[in-house]
Amino acid sequence: MQTITLNNGVKMPVLGLGLLNIRDLKECQRVVEDALEVGYRLIDTAQAYANEEAVGAAIKASGIKREELFITTKLFREFATEQKAIPSFEQSCKKLGVDYVDLFLIHQPINDVYGAWRAMTKLYKEKRIRALGVSNFYPDKLVDFVMNNEITPAVNQFVCNPFRQELELAKLLQEYNIAYEAFSPFAQGKNNIFSNEILAKIAKKHNKSIAQVVLRWLFERNIVSIPKTTSKERMRENLNIFDFNLDESDRKQILTLNIGNVGINHQDPKMIKWLNERSIGESLAHTKKD
């Protein structure tokens, strides 16, 4: 698996498995075991996904050395304070069955994220977290966050797909040497992405699938992607993107698909209110997409 080097020198796989909405623990364990078997090493979970225990069981069952894996989890809004972040992190480690995580993200730009970051920085200095990051941080929030914290995030996990290309955010992240990690690279199947005429034409040209074209497009933009799938066959397909290149014509055609800010919006007051009303005990991952 190819890697990128984060701003603190840690190497991160360019492609991983996302686990949003795989809440049945037996199913999730099976999915992660399959992913590890076919070659995935980056596994992305979160406290809000309610499946960290399944990830831990799969890691244990795989027999793969811990240092070969890149495990990401995320701090839920309810625990994003200076007092609660460390106990919450420790609970995640217990569920995952690990002594450290490779990447720990603030899941949403909500609650006392500055206090939470100070606590996370302490864990980072104690080498219990290999890299710190954020998720769903828009450019304005990100710049303020960088300018008012000791440690710059290594990663901003944010939506990115052909319909929402986030060109300005990508430019800003490059300026601040923060890696872009894309969730929902297939737009959660919306806008008929898997039958899109432009993407289908490009896929046929390269003898690849639409999914492979999208993941290759992200890879060539230096964006890490974490597509979700429960199919072992799809997992293998998603990994098979390193033997072809998109050309300028392909990129120009994909650019025409960009329709901007669609989906969840963390700058919408109603959305922020809704998120603040959720507790970790509620099915956050079922009812909203992060």
TrEMBL record:
Q: Which UniProt keywords apply?
A: NADP, Oxidoreductase
Where along the sequence do coiled-coil regions lie? Answer: none
Pfam families assigned to the protein according to its UniProt record, in alphabetical order = Aldo_ket_red (PF00248)
Q: What domain of life?
A: Bacteria
Annotated ranges, domain NADP-dependent oxidoreductase: 24-255
Say yes or no: keyword Protease present.
no
NADP: present as a keyword of the record? Answer: yes
Show the InterPro entries listed in the entry: AKR, Aldo/ket_reductase_CS, NAD(P)_OxRdtase_dom_sf, NADP_OxRdtase_dom
> Family, per the entry?
Belongs to the aldo/keto reductase family.
Question: What's the protein called, per UniProt?
Answer: Aldo/keto reductase
Biological source species: Campylobacter cuniculorum
